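User: I'm curious whether this sequence folds into something compact or stays loose and floppy. Could you predict its structure so I can see for myself?
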Amino acid sequence: MSRPVKIQVRFADLDVLGHVNNAVYLSYFEMARVLYFTPMMGVEWDWQKFGVLLKKNEIEYHIPVLLHDQPEISIHVLNIGTKSFTLGYELKVKDRVCTTGSSIMVCYDSIENKTIELPNEMRKALEELKKEY
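Assistant: Here's the prediction. I'll summarize afterward.
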């Protein structure tokens, strides 16, 4: 499991009940992915040639997150395939699981406009993260 990423809840994230809106969690998971992938692959990684596309998201809401909460998101690897992998997310506030989710990511070459096999460097990094979970 990755080191937790701290998220700041913004007033604009809230719904009429004062909870973080259900759609906002996808942005939170995206922020956690970006903050995970950048050190994992380095800033020089060619995301155009060896990128990833989001294929599917799933979210399960357990406990509402409120404005003054300080959520943290951990990422873990659920599955590694030939051209895709699945990430799991756990959003906690004060050690209480509030939201869980997953994303299927597909490796993609946007220059050639086609799916590609998982690059070896990315596979190794994902396998390391999977071992930790």
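Summary: Strands lie at 5-6, 51-61, 72-80, 84-93, 96-109, 114-115. The longest helix spans residues 24-41.
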